[in-house]
Every structure is written in structure tokens, then in C-alpha cells.
Amino acid sequence: MGIVKISEDMHENLRISSNALSRSINAQAEHWMRIGMLAELYPDLDHHAICRLLIRAEQAGGLDLQQICALADAAQNTPVQEAAKA
């Protein structure tokens, strides 16, 4: 585990969001990092699709980048995603 330095403004945003969503500040930061990482890796997926991927990954044993990428690749080829592309 390492130390990540963030601005005071971001820390305040984390504090407010973590209180509102009943998460620790670290859990809120990690949640935002997961969402951001997947949004960058899969820009065609919306927030709802990314959250579904995270839930599926948790059901399969937790966040593993290779597993997430495989799930995301599979999700991009579902009929819902294909219809959204059309």
C-alpha cells in the first residue's frame, strides 16, 4: 500500500461523498479510482455498465484487472451494447 497525495479540495469532496454514501474516505477514493480506471479503459461503457462490471467482478471473487477486462470485453459484445452502438 502506498500514500497518494491529493489536494485539499479533493479531500473535502471525498469526505462529503464518503459521509453521504456511508463509506470510509479510503473506500470512496478507491471507488472513484475503479470507476475512472474502467471509464478510461472502456470509454464506450456508461456508468451503469461499469457498476454492473464491478458487481460481477465482486461476485466472481473481487477486483482483478484481467478479470474486469474480460468481463468488460464480454459486456461490449452483449445485445444491449450492440443495440446501443447501432
SSE layout and pairing:
Blueprint: H1 8-20, H2 25-41, H3 47-59, H4 65-76, H5 79-85
List keywords for this structure.
mainly alpha, ParD-like family protein, 72% helix, 86 residues
Topology as a string of helices (H) and strands (E):
HHHHH
Which structural class should the secondary elements be placed in?
A: mainly alpha
**Low-confidence sequence ranges:** 80-86
The general outline is elongated
Q: Beta-strand level of the residues, as a percent range?
A: under 5%
Count of runs of 4 or more consecutive helical residues: 5
Oligomer: single chain
Kindly state the percentage of residues in helix.
over 70%
Radius of gyration, CA atoms, in whole angstroms? 15 Å
Mean pLDDT: 82
Question: How many structural units, i.e. domains?
Answer: 1
Count of individual beta strands: 0
Distance between the termini: 43 Å
Mind describing the biggest β-sheet?
none
Description:
The structure is a single chain. The termini are far apart. This protein is mainly α and 86 residues long. The protein has five helices and no strands. Residues 80-86 have low confidence and may be disordered. Helix 1 (8-20) packs across helix 2 (25-41) and helix 3 crosses helix 4. The chain is elongated and about 40 Å long. The chain has one domain (8-85). The longest helix is centred in the middle third of the chain and has 17 residues, at 25-41. This is ParD-like family protein.
